[in-house]
Amino acid sequence: MNSDRLSYIIALTHLYETRPRLAREVLAAYPDPQEAWERIVLPGKSESWDRALQETEFVTKHSIGTYYLHDADYPPLLAQCPDAPVLLYTKGNVNMRDGHFVAIVGTRQATERGKMFTHDLVLGLAEQLPNLTIVSGLAYGIDIAAHRAALEAGIPTLIIPGHGLDRIYPSTHRNEAVRALENGGIVTEYMSGSTPEKHHFVARNRIIAGLSECTVVVESRAKGGSLITASMAFDYDRPVFAVPGRIGDETSAGCNDLIRDQRASLLQSPDDLIEAMMWATAKRPVQTQLTGLDRSDDDLAPEELTLLRMIREAENGMLVNDLAEEADIPYSDVITHLMALEMKKRIKSFPGGKFMAV
User: Topology of 302-357 in CATH?
Assistant: First the structure.
């Protein structure tokens, strides 16, 4: 990107640092960053311009990539999000356009079970999916387990920090960050000198969710930070998956709540994710198997049969609330019957609480 144009974009993002939506509105009205800058008369312009010149020099000196929201090379999935950052800074061999992008997040206080599941999930996906990229935040626990598994599998991983590219946080994960630069890299909206503030990490979660086709929460406490990422993905209408845990396990409470509230689909294996996302795989042969329509329904209870027929007749599947209302069956009973139908492989649940026949 031309350095002068970049300076104007950086100056605008700095001027509206606490009001990023306003920066997007200004640039939408005046697509030429220089024109947008020159039309604005606000206190602090000179300070923002000086800061922009410093950052442009930093970007040039350290060969940092930049992606502007209104340019064709901006990551397309993120561009669909209403709160996408105006400018991204990247370091490494970054690809944010081609292939499958999966966000994997979770608690910093991960259990060995959670870290092992993350490892097996990433390796299982990498074995079957061409062009897979793992997206996460480099934090302790599930995040770093996802990055390490991607590095082990030899697939790209994108690190989304809550600070600028002049530091790595936490510093104990520097080795993983450096290795990621060779196959993947680091993506941030923050300028150099930006420190790892709590609100920065909350804001960066929208980049994790926005860059990804789906988000997987492996472990989360009832009020865990990864639930923010899941909520953002849900709001972007991106599929969310959660790994269930035992009732009473604090590190799984958030995941269980997501599944209970139908804001996430239950995930138990790489195959669950691949099938739910309807992704073509490289290694698995296509197998012919009996569908729910081919099997006898003699093993179904009357209410199960009623619900199954309704789901089969609905071209795009049905939601639980609609099933309960149309079948005149109590909501709690509908949930029980749907679980039984899924166990009998007659139906499959999808993100958003929708059920379809298989």
Answer: Arc Repressor Mutant, subunit A (1.10.10)
